[in-house]
Design a protein that fits this description.
2 copies of one chain form a homodimer. The first copy, chain A, contains 8 helices and 8 strands; from the N terminus they run αααββαααββαβββαβ. By secondary structure, chain A is an alpha+beta fold. The first copy, chain A, starts with 9 loop residues before the first helix and ends with a strand. The structure holds manganese (II) ion (MN) (4 copies). The first copy, chain A, binds a DNA duplex through α3. Chains A, B: InterPro entries: DtxR_MntR_Metal-Reg, Fe-transptr_FeoA-like, Fe_dep_repressor, Fe_dep_repressor_sf, FeoA_core_dom, HTH_DTXR, Iron_dep_repressor, WH-like_DNA-bd_sf.
DNA sequence: AAAAATTTTTAGACAAAACTAAAAATGAGA
DNA sequence: TCTCATTTTTAGTTTTGTCTAAAAATTTTT
């Protein structure tokens, strides 16, 4: 295996991560424009990079037919995601960052190349299974736990559920959750769905009743209790 | 001040660090070839980069006359060195790396951009003043302690001294020091200088007598007791 | 002070990754 | 099936950082 240890550029790594992300763990194929939007670049640049990644067998690609991430591509993506999430845990647990401050720093740290560093960091953190936003951390073989989860808006009235993760790690959304009093692990009871605007009435931790917007209800992922 | 927050590229940062290093903390001017050797590149590339850094007022430069790092350049260099050394402390103290394994990883981590990350890391580590190789860690204003230190080979016979730092952080040299039983803080007594090959007879921590080569005696920096 | 050796700069290319503008392919609607 | 809007690719540049080869300046030697 000649390029077992090939090192991908910063740019390549970011594209691979974006494609993996947009494909839902590699199930679906991804089109050029979607990648361009995700990466904040132009479709022309995406076309160029796709040809390059295809030559390196990181994606399967036929002109005009979109890309599908390969097994090799999945492995690379999962390694980057593992690093990203471990660093996020470090920043929150050890350096006392707030969960809405860590994403951009982890975006840089995820590209540090040293397998030994990551295995030592993993051990130092006590082999965490989830990052501060509730996302699962793949192990060194890319295996991670998948808990069934769905958006809050899909849960029927009367049902109780637990917050597993969030669909949006933006500072604005996380700060909003803080204000409302929702975090990973919080128990919510769905009281009512308001037909007219899609907002949802909920009770937080058996005591505080409130209403969340449809946008929030879409981004809070829960598992029924 | 327009470019107060200008972000230097990875390449620019590495050149700035190399120039600072070769100039002994900004005292001396540095010639093109020396930079090329330090950076493992060609004099032509160095010429190009010097012109660029000079335009950005990071160095003072006149054709054929070598470069002198500016105050601005010094500040940038010291920030990178601060990050490098703090990360080295983290790797050794928290992740249990050995002192000969950390340099290359710190070489990557030193380029992570986040002032808040560094101040939190500094606090997490207990505001260390020295890195694992004995080098001083500049504070956020670039101030660092300078202990008088000289190579072991300069100490006269009969004198005792303490190991302050090492001039060479290569794995080969550090592993050699481990084998001989010398580390930062070790007390050495100089027993004799062997005229014919420059080797030095020493006694380590008042008990073990041995002889070190002239190369080693050059790279072990000590302060007389 | 001239010649020789060394150092440094310039000229010209190249690769990676981006962009704009234009061309080509695709797919949906009529 | 034809038209037309949308998507995707190609063509041609640009920027950054590198390289080799050649020219120019400086320093050392004689
Ligand atoms: Mn990234
Ligand atoms: Mn996360
Ligand atoms: Mn570096
Ligand atoms: Mn060090």
């Amino acid at each position: 295996m000649s390029n077992f240890n090939y090192v991908y550029s910063l740019s390549e790594e970011n594209y691979i991560k974006a494609i993996y992300h947009l494909s839902n763990h590699g199930q679906e194929s991804v089109n050029t424009n979607a990648i361009a939007i995700e990466m904040n670049t132009t479709p022309a640049s995406v076309s160029d990079m796709i040809r390059k990644l295809s030559k390196k067998k990181v994606v399967d690609y036929q002109k005009y037919r979109g890309v599908h991430i390969s097994e090799k591509g999945k492995e690379i993506a999962l390694k980057i995601i593992r690093k990203h999430r471990l660093w996020e845990v470090f920043l929150v647990e050890k350096l006392n960052f707030h969960w809405d401050e860590v994403h951009d720093i982890a975006e840089q740290l995820e590209h540090i190349k040293s397998p030994l560093l990551i295995s030592k960091l993993d051990e130092f953190l006590g082999f965490p299974k989830h990052d501060p936003h509730g996302d699962p951390i793949p192990d060194e073989n890319g295996v991670f736990s998948t808990v069934k989860k769905e958006p809050l808006c899909n849960i029927e009235a009367g049902q109780s559920c637990k917050v597993i993760t969030v669909n949006d790690s933006s500072s604005a959304f996380l700060k909003y959750l803080d204000k409302v009093g929702i975090s990973i692990g919080t128990t919510l009871r769905i009281d009512d769905h308001n037909e007219f605007d899609g907002s949802v009435d909920i009770t937080i931790n058996q005591n505080k009743s409130t209403t969340v917007s449809p946008a929030a209800a879409q981004n809070i992922l829960v598992t029924p209790l």
